[in-house]
Amino acid sequence: MCRSIKTLFNFEPPATELEIRDASLQFVRKLSGFSVPSKMNEAAFDQAVADIAACARVLIASLVTSADPRDREVEAARAKARSALRFGTQT
What we know:
The chain is mainly α and 91 residues long. 58% of the residues lie in helices and 4% in strands. It is built from three helices and two strands. The radius of gyration is 16 Å and the shape is flat.
């Protein structure tokens, strides 16, 4: 769906408020079809982002796993390697 929305659960360090808000913003943008809402829709758009972020915080806090937390730097390196394979390296 939204390629820029990243997994936020089971990371060390845990997801930040900014990461949760950014993922919520991307989700609302995708649902609404607006990257920036009009002044008329701004309040509804902002409320939807806040509501989705609140739900995301509850979800992340409620989930349990027996897996070890993932390391952000290791996951970033893996993503970079996948990107290099897919698109080639840029010089």
